[in-house]
Amino acid sequence: MYSRRHKTFAFGTEYNWEWYEGLLGGANYYDHGRNQPGVVETVSRRDVSTSGLPSRWQFADEWYNLVPFPSKVRILAKVDESTLPDGATGGSGHPGHGRNHPVSWCQYYDGGRS
């Protein structure tokens, strides 16, 4: 979950609650580096949330590393890790996700959309 004025992240809570982690695409927070600029790539424009985005755009964030990787989801956007000045490695030693570092995705889940 994200809004332009205020970040709201669902990751990093409710570890080991199977339903909740399913809501998040089967993934959960592992770590992140400092807030840093990077280039986001729009992977899919078939969703109203990404339909007006350019193919590549600048954004700064604490790029989250996830464990396990999101599954059974449609990736909407990913960060190009090669554009991160400090790389994607977080404080706990996660190596990053390489060429497929998702930052936004969607899915149908338990009768609704997430």
Automatic annotation (TrEMBL):
Pfam families: ThuA. Residues 10-114 form the ThuA-like domain. Gene3D superfamilies: 3.40.50.880. InterPro entries: Class_I_gatase-like, ThuA-like. It comes from the Bacteria. Coiled coil: none annotated. PANTHER family: GALACTOSE-BINDING DOMAIN-LIKE SUPERFAMILY PROTEIN, SECRETED GLYCOSYL HYDROLASE. This is ThuA domain-containing protein. It comes from Micromonospora globbae. The lineage of its organism: Bacteria, Bacillati, Actinomycetota, Actinomycetes, Micromonosporales.
